[in-house]
Amino acid sequence: MDPTVENTPTDGHAVETATPTIPSATPTRTNKAKRNYRTKKRDTIDNEHDGDEEMKDDSLTESTQHSQQPAANCSNLPYVQSQNAQNIGEVYPGLARLSFLDQDSGVEGDKPEQEGSLGITRPHRPLQQKSLPLQQQQQSSSTSVEDEGELTISSQPVVETLATPPSTSPSVTSSGISSESNLIEIKDTALENKGRGLFSAAKDVLKAGTLVFKEMGYCQVVNDASLSSVCSACFKDTREEQGEDEKSASAGGVSASNQRKLVRCAGCKVVWYCNKTCQIKDWKLHHQLECQGIQQSMKNAVMKDVWTKRSMDTTTVRALCRMVRRRERVRTSAAYKAEHKKMDTAQRQVNEVYYSGLDQKEEEWLDEHGATWIDRYLRAPANNRDVSSKGVLDKSTQFTKIMAVVMSCVVSAKEDRATFMRGSGESTGEFEDASGTKGFELLQKLLSYGFSVTNLETTTAVGLALYVQSIPFMNHSCLPNCVYTFKGARVECRVIRDIQPGEELTISYIDQIGTTQERQKQLKEQYHFTCMCPMCQYFPANPLIQPNQDALLAIIPEPAFVPLLDPKQGFICPNSDCATRSDIGPILAMESQLAIYNKVELKCESCGQVAELTQEIVQENQEDAERIIAQFVRGMNGASDQQPKSGPRNFELAKVKLPETTDENAAEEARKAAAAKGGMNSVHEPSTAALQCFDEAYRSLTGVAPPQARTKSRQPTRSPMDINEDPVHRSALHRLVRQLEQTGFDEAVSHKNWVFALHRSLELERILNNTYIGHHPLKAVQGYYTCKIVNLLANLLLEESTIEIEESDHGQDSDEDEEMAGNSDDERDLKALRDAMGGGSSTRSKGHGTGSMQEQLLKRKQAGSAKTEGEAKSKAATKTTPIKRIQTEASRQLLVYLKSLIPKIEDPTLLQQFRVCWGKDGKLTNRYRYQVDSLKQALYYAELPFQETKL
Ligand SMILES: C[S@@+](CC[C@H](N)C(=O)[O-])C[C@H]1O[C@@H](n2cnc3c(N)ncnc32)[C@H](O)[C@@H]1O
C-alpha cells in the first residue's frame, strides 16, 4: 500500500488539515487558550503537495517496493568504525554536497545545519574508539554484538564496556579534549541496585557545554494530544512555528496566516506530516507496517473506537507496535540489501537522500542491532506487578488494554497471540517475526526506558521514544551534571557542569524543584529507587541520617552558590507568645513522621507547648494557602477580591489612564482610591487587599508575620515574595510562592498585564537562582518567558507612546510633566525618547498617533534622525510645548529593565552561560538568537544602544 495524504473526502470523513494551536507564553501544561482551527480544503498545504495529492509518485512506488533503507556496509560493529566518515561523499556521492564536516580538522564548519530540509543533519566526526578489551575482541574477530555475553554486575566498577553503539558524539575539540579519546562508556556503578551508568571516558575534564552524544530512537511516536500539530516524521511542532510566525508578523514579517499546516495519512487517518518528504521518510522507516496494522486493527469494532474515537490513549500502543514491527526487519534486511544493490545509482541516491547521510547509517545500525540491544541490555523491571511476562494478567489494567490493541495491530492470527505474549523467541534467542517477539517484555522495557520527547521551546511533552544506545544507561541525580534536549525526536545530551575523567554522567528524571522528600517520593513511585545523590545527602529526607555536606562539595569544589537551607525549613512554636523557631532537625523529623504515621506531636523546646499536627491539617493549610494565593494573584492583577472575575479581563496597559487632574495630591488620592478597590492603575502594583492576602498566606504557613509590613505605596519598596531573606521558610511556603509566581505570570499574560508578568518572571528567576545550584531547566524556561515579555513590552512601549501623542493634543500642564521627567536619568531618557517620537506632537492629530508597528517604527526612525540634529532643541520644545505625560511606572520600569539587559548580552561571561545551556561548539543556537533578536528589537524600539559581542 502506498502512503497517501488525505485530500478528498473519503469514507465520509471530512478532508482535514490541521492548523497548529497557538502556544501561550507559558508552557502548554498551563495553556488554556489552545485553539485548533480546521479547514475543509487543504489548498494552503506545502507546495510539495500541489498536483500530487495522493502521493503515489514513481519514486514512492519504487521505494515502497522495498520497505526498508538502502544497504550500505551494515555491520554488527558501529558504523563509525566501519565508515570512512572523513569523506562522506565517497560513501554517498549524492550527499557530498550536504556534508559540512571540516575534513582536515574534524571540526564543524561554518555552514549552518540543514535542519528541516529533508531532515539532513551534518555528519559528525566519528570517535576513535578506546582500545578496551571487549571492543578489541569485536574488531579483531568481527564477532557480532549478538555473540557477546551479558554484562556481569559486580560491586566494583568494571572496566569492560558494552559493544559501542553508533555513537554520534560530536567533535570534542571545542572542549579542548583530544579527539583521540572516547567521551563516554557504559559500565557498572559501585551501587548494585543502581545497575549500570554512563561514565566519562575522556582523558580530560568534560567542559560544561560539551555535547556528549546525540542519538536517534529505535522507535518514536508523537503522542495522541499532539498528533495533528506535530509531524510524525521530523517532530516539527507547528504550534511553535505559529508562535514564531506571529512574532515575525508583529515585526513586519510574514503573516501568521501563512503558517504551515500538517497533512494526515489517508490510509490510517491517524498520523500527520509536514509534507510528502516527511511522509515518505516515515513510511519507509515505520509507517508502512504501522498503517497496515492500524487498518487491520480497525476491522474489529472495539478497536475501531480506539483509533477513531480515541477511547484510550494510543501513544504507548503505537510506540510498542513500531518497536515490534521494526524487529521484523532484521529478518528481511539481507534480502533488502540485495535488492538495494540492484538499484541504479540514481535510484539509490533518491533513496538515500531521504535518510540524509549519517541518519541513514544510524537507522541501519538500529535496524540491525537495536533489537539485540533491547533484548540484551535494556532490563525489564522484576518488581512490576502489573506487567509480568509469566504471571496471570489483570485484564483490567491499562497494560492489558495496551497489549490487546497492540496485538490487534501486529498479530493477525488468533493462535499466534499466546506466542506473542509469551515469546517463542525466548528459547532460541532469535526473533524471526512478530509472533516471535516477547510482547510483554517489550512493553516492560518501553515503560522503563521510554523517554518523553519534549518541545525544546515550551518543554511540553510531544511524544514517546525508546533509545537504545546511550541515554537509557544514564542514571538519575537531583544534582545532575548533564541535561538532555530534543531536536525533533533526536535526543542530545550536554554537560552542564565540568565532569572529571571517570565521573558518572547523570541527568534528572524529574522536576528538581521539590524538596528532598518530595523528590524521593516521586522517584520511588515512578522509578522504584531511593536516590542517594549528593543533593539528597546534603539535605537528607530521613532525619536520622546526618546531612553530608562533603558529598556536595566533593563534586562542586567551588560552587557559585551553596545552599544554606533546603527550601523546606522553619518550625514555629504554635504558642503565639513564644513563636520560637526550630532548626532543620525537628522539621525533617516532623515531615518524615507525618508521612509515616500521619500524626506528629510538636513540642516546643523553649516553652514546652505541645501541639498535634496531622496530614489533614497540613492538607487544609495547603488548600487555605492556595485559596489565599489565588486571591492574591487576582488582587495583584487588579481584580476585585470581593467579586472574583468570571473571565479574563482586559487590562491592556495602553488603555490605562490617570485621572484627569492637574493636582498631584488629588491624583495621588485618586490612585490610592483606585488601588484600594483594585482599580485600573494598580496593574503594576499589588492592591492592598492582595498584599493582605499574601501576608495572611505567609503567616498561616510560617506562623510569623511577614518579614516586613507591606504597606501600599507608590514606590514599591520590596517584593512581597522576597522570602529568601527570611531564614524561616518551609517547603509549603516555598512551593506556594513559586506557584504564585507561576500562576501570577500566566494570569498576568492572560490579562495582558505585561508589567506584572515581567515582575513575576524576574521574581521566578531570582527564586530559582537562589535556590538551585548550577543550571536548572526551569531557568531556561525562564529565559524564554523573559524574552517573550521583552518583545511584548517593546510593543507596549510603542502603544504608550502612541497614547501620549494622542493625549498631547488636548494640551496639558507642562509643570507636572517636567517635574516627573526630572526624577531620574531613566525618566529623562524616556522623555527624550518620547520627545523624539512626538516632536511636534502637540500639533498632531489624534489619528496620526496610532498606526501599525511598521508605521510606528518608521516614525521612530524619522524622529530619531530629528533627534540627532538637536536633542537640546527637542528638549526646549518640550518645555514650551505642554504635553500631558502618560508616563506610567510601567514605562519607567521597562526602560530600566531594558537597560539592565544590555550588559547581560554584551558580557562574554554571561554569553558563555547561555552557551552552556544552549550553545554548541561556538555557535549561537536558535534559542539564543531568538533571545538576542528579541532584545535587539526591544532596544531598538527604546532607542537604547546595543553592541552585540562577537563570539
Ligand atoms: C534508565 S535506567 C538507568 C540505567 C540502569 N542503571 C541500568 O542499569 O539499566 C533507570 C533505572 O536505573 C536505576 N537508577 C537510576 N538512577 C538511580 C539512582 N540515582 N539511584 C539508584 N538507582 C538508579 C533505577 O532502577 C531506574 O529505574
Automatic annotation (TrEMBL):
The keyword Lipid biosynthesis does not apply. This is SET and MYND domain-containing protein 3. It holds the Pfam family SET. InterPro entries: H3K4_H4K5_MeTrfase, SET_dom, SET_dom_sf, Znf_MYND. It comes from Linnemannia schmuckeri. Residues 17-30, 128-144, 164-179 have a biased composition (Low complexity). Keywords: Metal-binding, Zinc, Zinc-finger. The keyword Zinc-finger applies. One of its GO terms (molecular function) is zinc ion binding.
